[in-house]
Amino acid sequence: MWKIITEALPQLIVAGLKYTIPIAVISFIIGLALALVVALTRISTKRGAFNILRWIAGFYVWLFRSTPLLVQLFIVYFGLPYLIIPGLAPTGIKLDPYTAGIITFSLNTGAYCAETVRAALLSVPEGQWEAAYAIGMNRSLVLRRIIIPQALRTALPPLSNSFIGLVKDTSLAASITIVEMFEVSQQIAAANYQPLLMYSLVALIYAVFCTVLSWLQKWLENKSSAYLQTTQGGAHS
């Protein structure tokens, strides 16, 4: 048993560092940027054509929160090649597994994080907007200097949880042939006929990764709390 573990462990860790973590990090960064745009669109009070953008943003959030991530992966990777668009994609939209995975995870993460960011932005008292406007700030400056820094502290715990969940969700990438950590464990289990041992080992590695990320989350929360206390102290003085 120990020989199997010592042979498999390096392969699993390499796959985790080469594919699992990078896929999660890249997807989360893209998803978070998308979430901020969607959240700001949904809380905007502009009228006219902006109503259509708000509807599109709301539909996007509803769609990706209401369907399974595995189904989304299958649609992007296996389904899009059959989507024929004359003049644009006459032979369908064919993506390599890695690109399909990044796109799907980013869109899924963006939908969930958009609601987190939107709730955090709305949690900032309306009076702070009014006070900032009263001293001549425009909306962009108010968001950048006052609203987003405060909302970030509120959103940090749920966003961190979303990232940790995304690290675990990357195991679904094996279903579209990405050779990430779980896929490697399946390949090794098929070769040594030790599925219980291999799946337990990969579960342990996921647990270690997520534990480290949980420690990082606590450190970031402490840092953001200290920053907020410092800024508030400076404001009062």
UniProtKB/TrEMBL annotation:
The chain crosses the membrane at residues 19-40, 52-80, 196-216. It comes from the Bacteria. GO terms for cellular component: ATP-binding cassette (ABC) transporter complex. Residues 17-214 form the ABC transmembrane type-1 domain. Its main location: membrane. InterPro entries: AA_ABC_transptr_permease_3TM, ArtM/GltK/GlnP/TcyL/YhdX-like, MetI-like, MetI-like_sf. Coiled coil: none annotated. It is a multi-pass membrane protein. It is found in: Cell membrane. Keywords: Amino-acid transport, Cell membrane, Membrane, Transmembrane, Transmembrane helix, Transport. GO terms for molecular function: L-cystine transmembrane transporter activity. PROSITE patterns: ABC_TM1. Belongs to the binding-protein-dependent transport system permease family. This is Amino acid ABC transporter, permease. It comes from Lacticaseibacillus manihotivorans DSM 13343 = JCM 12514.
